[in-house]
Amino acid sequence: AQSVTQLGSHVSVSEGALVLLRCNYSSSVPPYLFWYVQYPNQGLQLLLKYTSAATLVKGINGFEAEFKKSETSFHLTKPSAHMSDAAEYFCAVGSNTDKLIFGTGTRLQVFP
Amino acid sequence: DAGVIQSPRHEVTEMGQEVTLRCKLISGHNSLFWYRQTMMRGLELLIYFNNNVPIDDSGMPEDRFSAKMPNASFSTLKIQPSEPRDSAVYFCASSLALGQGAGYGYTFGSGTRLTVV
Questions:
Q1: How many Å lie between the alpha carbon of B111 and the closest alpha carbon of chain A?
Q2: Mean pLDDT in residue range B96-117
Q3: Residue A46 sits at the chain B interface (C-beta within 8 Å)
Q4: Model pLDDT, residue B1
Q5: pLDDT > 80? residue B64
Q6: Is the dihedral angle over the CA atoms B35, B96, B9, A84 positive or is it negative?
Q7: Which end of chain B is more exposed for a tag (fewer CB within 10 A), N or C?
Q8: Which has more confidence, B66 or A28?
Q9: A71: buried, middle or exposed (CB in 10 Å: 19+, 13-18, 0-12)?
Q10: What's the CA gap between B36 and B66, in Å, rounded?
Q11: Quick one: pLDDT band at residue A37, thresholds 50, 70, 90?
């Protein structure tokens, strides 16, 4: 069985500060890992994905995530937060079925 | 590409009424997922289809909920009769599954906000 845990339901940062959103996964087979972002009143949009190529994955809007097998982690980072990054972020894990398992989400607030 | 299209965007209905939510997949995608999102329970997978066939409906809350894929590009989610606790945002997502599992990820629609009064 697969699962994903997002540590921290809310994260607050100042504009220009580092963004770090944590995601740990559990999977008995090599996983696919995803980060999605949801802006208010919108659907989820794919930020980036890991599918067993490079362990450091770059996504849209300056976000990146690093797959660390030894730590079963796939944390999302951005060097400098922008006000427009305020949204909810979801980590998801998948494998050899079509189903993605989503985390409970982390709401990012960015203060001026 | 118009993306995944859901209709209506908002639906307000009275308890006991039938509600039908609609979803048009991205052309060429062959997997379809229905999710429900609430503050209390987060994002829940209700059902998913692959090549028009329901694969896993274990997330459907009860018999009042039903979903169909009459063709490769369209799906409906029906609630009959609706209840106030069904109020939520319902998303559909489509994907291209080529026997490689979930590697392609999903493309989500903008959702239908359902309010049952």
A1: 6
A2: 82
A3: yes
A4: 62
A5: yes
A6: positive
A7: N
A8: B66
A9: exposed
A10: 13
A11: very high
The DSSP call for residue A30 is P
Nearest CA of chain A to the CA of B95: how many Å? 9
DSSP A44-63: EEEEEEE-SS-SEEE-GGG-
Residues in chain A within 8 Å Cβ distance of B45: 99
Report the percentage of chain A scoring pLDDT > 70: 99
Whether pLDDT at A13 is above 90: yes
* Sequence-distant (≥ 6) Cβ neighbours of residue A94 within 8 angstroms: A2, A31, A32, A33, A34, A100, A101, B101, B102, B103, B105
A42 and chain B in contact, CB less than 8 A: yes
Look at A6-20, A52-66, A92-106, B24-38 and tell me which has the smallest mean pLDDT: A92-106
Listed in order, strand segments (DSSP E) in chain A are 3-7, 10-14, 19-26, 32-38, 44-50, 56-58, 64-68, 73-78, 87-94, 101-102, 106-111
CA distances from A41 to A14, A38, B1, B20, B90 (A): 23, 8, 21, 20, 12
C-alpha to C-alpha distance for B51 and B30, rounded to whole angstroms: 5
Identity of the amino acid at B45: L
**What whole-number distance in Å separates Cα of residue A9 and Cα of residue A88?**
9
